[in-house]
Amino acid sequence: MIELEGLTKRYGEKVAVRDLTFTVRPGIVTGFLGPNGAGKSTTMRMILGLDHPTAGDVRIDGTHYDRLQDPLTYIGALLEAKGVHPGRSAYNHLLCLAQSNGIPERRVHEVLDAVGLTAVARKKAKGFSLGMGQRLGIAAALLGDPRILMFDEPVNGLDPEGIHWIRTLMKSLAAQGRTVFVSSHLMSEMALTAEHLVVIGQGRLLADTSMADFIARNSRSYVRVRSPQRELLLDVLHREGSPPCRAGTGRWRWTAGRRSGSGSWRPGGRWCCTS
Ligand SMILES: Nc1ncnc2c1ncn2[C@@H]1O[C@H](COP(=O)(O)OP(=O)(O)OP(=O)(O)O)[C@@H](O)[C@H]1O
C-alpha cells in the first residue's frame, strides 16, 4: 500500500504537486492519469525518496522509503528506462542490482525469463531497442519480488506487442495481490488496464475513484446521423421537439443525456452539428 498525505512539491515559484492525498491499494491496478506536466513523475519520485516533499508525507506499507530495510523487496519501480550503463549487459546490470541489495543471483535468471530477455541477456544495453530497455527496467523492478510496483508511462513508444505484454503483466501482478501503480497521460490506456483511477491536473487531485465510476460520470453516448436530405432531417428534428443547431455539413450528433453520479440515466439530450 502507498499512502500520500498532503504531498506538495514546489520548485521555486512552480508548484509541481499540490496537497495530494490518496491511497494506492493492493490487488488492483491503480492508474495515475494526467496530462504532460501534471506532476505524475514528481509524485512518483517523492514516493521513492528521490525528491523531498516541500510539505506532506508519503509512506510505503506504513514506512518512509528511506527507512525501509532492503527497499527493492518492498517496492520496485520503472521511472526512466534509460537508467542503464550502455556498456553493461542486461545480465550484469541486474546482477549488480541484486548483489548490492542482498538478492540471490538465481533471481536475475528468473526476472530475465519473466520479461523475455534471456536470449539477449549477455548483450550490451546500448544495442537494446526501446521495448527491450523497458523490459530490462521492468526486470529490475521485479528483482526483489516486491509487493508494490510502480511504473511511470511504461507503454510510451512501445509497439503493439510490447504494449499488450505490459498490460497483461500489470494485471497479472495485481491478480497476485500486489499493489500496482501506473502512470499515463492516455485515458484510453488507463481504461484498458486500471481498475481504479487517480487523476491529477496542474499538481492537484481531480479524481480518486473506480474506473467504472469515472467512465459512468464522464462519458456520453451519442448517435451520429448523416443525411443528404438536410431540410427533411431538420423538419423531423423540429417535430420531435429537438431543434438542432444551424450548420451546413449535413451531419448531426444526438447526445443522449448522461449518467448521474448514482449511475442512473439523466435525460436531456440535444442535437448538435459536427464538421
Ligand atoms: N527539477 C525540476 N525543477 C523545476 N521544475 C520541475 C522539475 N521537475 C518537474 N518540474 C515541473 O513540475 C511540473 C510537473 O512535472 P512532472 O514531470 O512531474 O509532470 P508529469 O505529469 O510527469 O509530466 P510528463 O507526463 O510530461 O512526464 C512541470 O511543470 C515541470 O516542468
Automatic annotation (TrEMBL):
GO molecular function, one term: ATP hydrolysis activity
Domain spans labelled ABC transporter: 2-227
Organism: Streptomyces haneummycinicus
Superkingdom of this protein's organism: Bacteria
Keywords: ATP-binding, Nucleotide-binding, Transport
InterPro entries xrefs: AAA+_ATPase, ABC_transporter-like_ATP-bd, P-loop_NTPase
Protein name per its UniProtKB record: ABC transporter domain-containing protein
Signal peptide coordinates: none
Family, per entry: Belongs to the ABC transporter superfamily.
PROSITE patterns membership: ABC_TRANSPORTER_2
Regions crossing the membrane: none
